């Protein structure tokens, strides 16, 4: 069962998945000091250094999910995932 997360007006949501300890370390490292970046966003951080960030594209108005990973110290953007809203 998938639960919908209301994006508009939300303070945001940060989810850790996979290896719990590593996920928390990544989440704290990259988002712990910037809670304002979570606003109206759903961020999923995995223990392998990958992230999915779901947010509204302000140009098109569509909700988009983009995947990122840290590889050898550099942030790489992966493909955009299809989203149902």
Please compute the radius of gyration using only Cα atoms: 13 Å
Compute the number of helices. 1
Low-confidence stretches: none
Structural class of the secondary elements? mainly beta
Number of domains: 1
Main β-sheet, in a few words?
A: 5 strands, mixed
Would you report the number of β strands?
5
- For the termini, the CA-CA separation is 16 Å
Elements, N to C (H/E): EHEEEE
Strand order of the largest sheet: 1-2-3-4-5
Q: What percent of residues are in strands? A: 35-45%
What's the helical proportion of residues?
A: 10-25%
Shape: globular
Average pLDDT over all residues: 77
Topology:
Blueprint: E1 13-17, H1 20-31, E2 42-46, E3 50-56, E4 63-71, E5 74-81
Parallel strand pairs: 1-2
Antiparallel strand pairs: 2-3, 3-4, 4-5
List keywords for this structure.
mainly beta; five-stranded mixed beta sheet; 1 helix; 40% strand; globular
Quick rundown:
With 85 residues, this protein is mostly beta strands.
Q: Would you mind describing this structure in some detail?
A:
The chain has one domain (13-81). The chain has a five-stranded mixed sheet, with helices on one face. It is mainly β and 85 residues long. The longest helix has 12 residues, at 20-31. Helix content is 14%, strand content 40%. It has one helix and five strands; from the N terminus they run βαββββ.
């Amino acid at each position: 069962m998938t639960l919908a997360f209301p994006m508009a007006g939300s303070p945001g949501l940060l989810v850790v998945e996979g290896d719990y300890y590593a996920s928390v370390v990544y989440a704290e490292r990259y988002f712990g000091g910037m809670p304002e970046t979570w606003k109206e966003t759903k961020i999923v951080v995995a223990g392998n250094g990958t992230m999915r960030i779901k947010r509204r594209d302000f140009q098109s108005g569509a909700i988009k999910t983009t995947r990122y990973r840290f590889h050898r110290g550099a942030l790489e953007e992966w493909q955009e995932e299809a989203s149902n809203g």
